[in-house]
Design a protein that fits this description.
By secondary structure, this protein is mainly alpha-helical. Helices cover 58% and strands 6% of the residues. It has 2 domains: 83 residues, no CATH class; 86 residues, no CATH class. It is built from 8 helices and 3 strands. Its EC number is 3.4.24.-.
């Protein structure tokens, strides 16, 4: 509605709108905290196993920063885009058992779930995935409470990180061949979007992902093609 036409909102309407918006943002923040694990484990002493896992995670993190082509490439392009990422912003820590990592846009940090990696390659894919989210945030100023924005970044992160390579799918017990990569990207993006409390149901997640899929899947920046 044009600002010069139609009735002006009353004070109570404006306040309710602000409250609804604030409530929605808080729900998203709580979800983001759960997704990343940041904020859930503050102040909890590490067990000896957690300490060992974190030490191993830190060692592998540094090795990947120094030696992984995809991690090095993403860090270089983040720096070129004005978002240099120091190693301390890649945080090894304890998380719940449902995920391997997450991106916290408010802190400009990536959490690496120290106890949840089954190999260095798994950790590499996780770092690459979250670095794509960080790149999108840096380059395109993503609104993470906007389902279309999140869907696009999830499509790109799953496609470009190696999450949907044939070997990765085999490890999950998915044996399809024809169109495997695209179907994996679509499935995983829908799952991530459906987990967002701002998304009412899986049907909505599927609809939003399908609406943006073609253009976002084709956008391989900063890569020339799918890694």
């Amino acid at each position: 509605m044009d600002s010069e036409s139609g009735p002006k909102p009353s004070a109570s309407t404006s306040q309710n709108s602000t409250s609804d918006s604030s409530s929605a943002f808080e729900r998203w923040r709580n979800w983001a905290s759960e997704m990343t694990g940041i904020g859930f484990t503050t102040g909890i002493p590490s067990t000896s196993r957690q300490a060992r896992d974190i030490a191993r995670c830190e060692k592998n993190k540094q090795w990947l920063i120094d030696n992984s082509p995809v991690v090095t490439f993403m860090l270089q392009h983040l720096a070129l885009s004005g978002c240099r990422v120091p190693a301390r912003n890649l945080i090894c820590g304890p998380c719940n058992q449902t995920r391997a990592g997450g991106y916290d846009p408010e802190r400009g940090a990536i959490i690496l779930c120290a106890s949840n990696f089954y190999s260095r390659r798994h950790m590499e894919r996780t770092m690459a995935h979250e670095l794509v989210h960080m790149y999108d945030d840096c380059k395109f100023n993503v609104d993470w409470s906007n389902l279309r924005h999140q869907a696009c970044s999830e499509i790109r992160a799953n496609s470009l990180s190696g999450d949907c390579r044939y070997a990765s799918e085999l490890a999950r017990g998915v044996f399809g061949v024809a169109g495997q990569h695209q179907e994996c990207v679509r499935r995983r993006a829908i799952g991530s979007l459906a987990a967002n409390p701002l998304c009412p149901n899986e049907e909505t997640a599927r609809k939003v992902v399908n609406e943006v899929f073609e253009s976002c899947f084709k956008d391989t920046r900063p890569f020339d093609e799918v890694y």
